[in-house]
Every structure is written in C-alpha cells, then in structure tokens.
Amino acid sequence: MQRGEVWARLLRDHDRINSIGYESEVFLEGFFLEEIIWAARAHPKTPVISGSFPYPWQSLSPAERKYRADIRNDIKVGELTPVENCGDVTTAEFLLEKAKEYLDQYREAEMRVHQKHPGVGGGTLRRAGKLPPYCPKASILWDDGSESTIVKIEWAHFTDDQIVDAFRKWLKSDRPKTVGKPDRRGHKRISERVKLEQLGIMRLLHRFTLKELRTACPRAWKHYNTANRRWHRDAKKARACFHSFFPFLSDEENPISWPPKR
User: Fold this and answer.
1) Can you give the pLDDT of all 262 residues of the chain as single tens digits?
2) Are residues 73 and 93 in the same domain?
3) Around Cβ 102, how many Cβ atoms within 10 Å?
4) Model-level pTM greater than 0.70?
5) Which domain, by its residues, includes 11?
6) 116 with 148, same domain?
7) 61 phi and psi angles, rounded to 5 deg
8) Handedness of CA 71, 74, 79, 82 (dihedral sign)
C-alpha cells in the first residue's frame, strides 16, 4: 500500500471514529505518541498521555485515565453561559436587519387597512381594532441553537423576583420548537456497572465455553455466576451496546471478543 493510500485510510478511519462526538477523544487521544509531546511536558496544561495504546485501560496511570475520561462538550469547549450580553458587530447588523424587516411587514399591513378604509384616521382605526398590533421584535436564531434578541427590562418598576417570573413565562412560550432540550437525566452508576459486567462476560465467552469457564477461570465463574444470570443474553447485550456506541459500523463489524464460543 502506497504512503498516500495509508494516509487517506488513516484520515477516513479518524473521521469515522470522530463522528460519534466528543466521546471519540477517549480513544483518539490514546494514539498520541509520547515522543511527540515530551518537550512540552513542563507546561502545566500539557495533556497526560503516555502513548501506550493499545494497552488495557487499567494499565494506564491514574492521571491519564482521569484526563481521558473527562469527556468534553459544547459548553466546555465554547465556554458557554446560559445568558450573556452579545454586542458584537455581526449580531448588531443582523438584529438591525431583522428589526427593519419586521417594521416593513407591519407598515405593509397598516397600508392595506388604510386602503380598505380610505379617509379614516389612524387613531379611529386603532380604537376600532382595525389596525394590527405593533409588537416590535428583533431576534436571530443561529444554526448552533443559540438566539440573540433585543429585550426591554423595567428595572425601576419591578423587583428581581418579578423580572425572573416574567422571564420564565417568556422562556416557556418563546423557546424555539426546532431546538431540542438537553437531556439532563444522566445515567445511574449501577447501569454503567451492568454494562461493564456484560462486556466482561462477552470477553470470557469468546475464549471459553461455560463448561470450560468453571475450571479455567474459577474466580470469574464465582463472581458472575448467579441464579438469574443469562450468560449469552448478556453477551448479546454487550454487542448491542458496542454497536450503539459506534453507529457508523455495519452489522458485520463486531468487537474482537465476538462471537462467543458454543
């Protein structure tokens, strides 16, 4: 295989792994070689990476495991806050365009009412409810799910609690329907331990049959063998978890520890 082909294949595989999101960094950072970054070791923010891939996770130093297990997200990377003052030039220009667009739409609607009622003053039409209400609005919904808008806050007439209550009402009514809410339910640690058990069972059954396991790994047999244990079912669940974590893999691509022995 030519060097260019090797590099193209490496980039293709990197992109596939990277497609699962920030979780991919736990694996990808294991490919870094210590020789490449040894000169930067004196810097306090230098990543703790030993270059020991593909050694088992438990063989890594506690410092490296702690560093690589800290999965980043958009909030950490972008240093995001729920609400902030946003007065950059680009935002200001877009807000002005949005405000003018809304104003032009209102004026067109107002003109149609006057054409329908010639000779009638604007005040009379407003009192009769003929004119559309003018609620100036300037808002931009960015592609990343954030929103920039213009608001007016009556600091001198309302308490902080009243302002917070009003903001909460606005939040419930105006939250964009096209932007999903983050899932903050999380996972209980017991569910993670169950998945690790299933992974261990899949690895054991790949090397031994249940009959062999009793004598070859008595400690594992004693640890895992319970009255409700369904060995091959748990191995299948571990495989399903593997495919859910790497959705870009085909059904034919499986963990090294698959299939189990029969």
Assistant:
1) 567 888 888 888 888 888 888 888 887 777 765 544 544 555 666 666 766 777 777 888 888 888 888 888 888 887 888 888 877 888 888 888 888 888 888 889 888 988 988 888 888 888 888 888 877 778 888 888 899 988 889 999 999 999 999 999 998 988 888 888 776 555 566 777 888 899 999 999 999 999 899 999 999 999 899 888 999 999 999 999 888 888 888 888 899 899 998 7
2) no
3) 16
4) no
5) 3-78
6) yes
7) -70, 150
8) negative
